[in-house]
Amino acid sequence: MVISKNLVVRYFWIIIGILLSIIGLIGIILPGLPTTPVMILAAACFFRSSKKLYTWVIKNKYFGQHVKNFRDYKGIPKKVKLMIITWMWIFVLISVLFGIPDNFLWAKVLASLAAITGTVYIITLRTI
Question: Per-residue pLDDT tens for 34-69?
Fold first, then answer.
């Protein structure tokens, strides 16, 4: 663990980690909001600030194993990859086609590029 000695820096990472954890926990019940990537970021914040909170993330029964697999470069199951890509594109297409007004073409393009980037990243992750 790389816990910062500087108290201000530690609290900064703890606050960011808690905010990310809240978003990740909401993602458990709200379809379309990714839990695991957000909890990976929260774990990275806690890795720098709090052993107790970091342990909570990696031992959690809902997302801990996924965070550990990512941390240990083990990858993700093929079924999970397919699910991630499918849900991501469903929500992006709904947003681009119905949610983002036509006069915000830049937002539609940005959302599409983000989805393409996310898809490429998920595909390139190691499959277990």
Answer: 788 889 999 999 999 999 999 999 999 988 998 998
Q: Which residue matches tokens 């905010």?
A: 19
Q: Residue 31 pLDDT more than 80?
A: no
Angle, alpha carbons 36-98-121 (nearest 5°): 30
* Cα separation values, 42 from 77, 105, 123, Å: 22, 32, 23
pTM here is 0.70
What is the 3-state secondary structure of the chain? CCCCCCHHHHHHHHHHHHHHHHHHHHHHHCCCCCCHHHHHHHHHHHHCCCHHHHHHHHCCCCCHHHHHHHHCCCCECHHHHHHHHHHHHHHHHHHHHHHCCCCCHHHHHHHHHHHHHHHHHHHHCCEC
**127: β partners:** 76
Domains of the chain: which residue ranges?
A: 7-71, 78-124
CB 81 within 8 A of CB 123: yes
